[in-house]
User: Fold these one by one.
Assistant:
Number 1:
Amino acid sequence: MTIGEGRKEDRPVQHFMTIMHCSSYPATSPRTQMQTSPPSTDLPQHFTDATRAILVDWLIQVHDMMQFQAETLYLAVHLLNRCLRQMKVTTANLQLLGMVCLFLAAKKEECLLPEVSGLCYLMDHTYTKHQLLRMERKVLCGLKFDLSHCPPLHFLILFASIAHCSTKMVWMARYLLELSLMDGQCVAFLPVHLAGAALCLARQVLQEPPTPEGEAAWCLVSSLHIGSESVLLRIMSILASAAATAQTRDTCATYLKYSSADTMHVSRHPGLKNPSSLLGTHT
């Protein structure tokens, strides 16, 4: 499975390097992650946010096909972001790096692991088993064997549980949160901020009838959110814009995933089509 496979309308698969060429180039606990400074969003000069989005979209497709846990995807993208900032990686090895990050995340989060030969098959045998294992060693050494990460999904589930959110609101928030993986701007925000913004935006989209118990619970969640209102609104604006254009993008794996009955068709909700109506002048 090469990058680009499985997109809408079953378009022919293009080789990963062709897509890259056509793109425009120019150890912690939840409490620690609430307090530490956000990471840099700087990418190597030969990578762009569009390049990164293509790779993450492909990883989402592979992750979904493997039926891995949701935490595995968030950890894989987190490792990828760190590698892109800390390691020297050529464009030719970008897909290999992404697969290795997913493989390492699976080793940490999953009970059953795919064979290395199976991973090579998913990359259309562009790389050998030896190359994959060598890249794995390079990544582990580059990250100093630190694979720790508290994903924003954990904060989201915690907040949603405290606020007694409906099943549909949780799915909507999870969809919006997963969209943040695609956007390079979101790398700069802490996991707790991303989770809080995704849940707030989901609440705005669905406009579910309030109840006294629910409002009291939501006030409690709001008091737990650490971060300024401006940061929250900025993330909500990014997510709202991403959701409004998700269906028309080439990188639409997340949109398709959350358009199924299993996820209550949340990505198709009409309230997502007009971000300005959700955020007013803040979009």
Note: The CA atoms of residues 35 and 190 lie 9 Å apart.
Number 2:
Amino acid sequence: MMTTSNSTRLLPLYMYSQISQLHHFKTMDSSVISPTLLLSFLISASLLISLSDSLVCTSQKFKANKVFSNCTDLPYLKSFLHFTYNSTNSSLSIGFISPPAKPEGWVAWAINPTGTGMIGSQALIAFQSNGSLIVNTYNVSMFPQQSKLSFDVWDLSTESDGKNFAIFATVKVPEGATTVNQVWQVGPSVSKGVPDKHEMGEANKKSVGVLKLIAGGGAAAPAPAPTAVPAPAHGPSSDKKSGVCRIGKSNLLSVLGLLVSLFWFI
């Protein structure tokens, strides 16, 4: 269900390899070889920089062949959101991807219509039940309680690639809305059909944001830091940033230029 580019990991090794070639050929015939080799190096490096700056979510495909207009690499819990906003009927279709904290755990995505944190959020929570992946709706107060949501939801479904859970749904949003407060979470276990408490690591506490629905709405702006709650409607992990590492193109090109100059005049 998900493929991740290795360009970020390969870039330093590639840079070293190419610069070494420049230094080697300089000693042979710099007047002929150096311009061509230097140009080749810079073009190749630029392509790798472009790849490393791309979103991971754009390479993800669903088994159900679902397609969405936008996607965003959420900043915590190795999670991703694909979505399409339909202004004609004020609906938001989503495809949420995340690995549970443990294989027997759960993943959740929610909208909070009254605040920016977990308390009050209307959640979709997926977990394994009797060997099948299911998704239920929950109203999150202090603990997740299975119930109808405060807004309409339809086309609920799930899928898994063995490592990640995906939740699909279409929800009704207020007419004319341009943003929604989203919350996502992961948990380690489920007891008697009820999601257990998630961890309280930094990533778990920060897994909230404001989702822009229109024009360039792929970005998930951070919401104000929520207050910690004793039990949630979602789950754990504590990686600080998901997706591909982003390095400023201008800064990296400056570094490349400096490295080329240093090797050239050694």
Note: The longest helix spans residues 7-52.
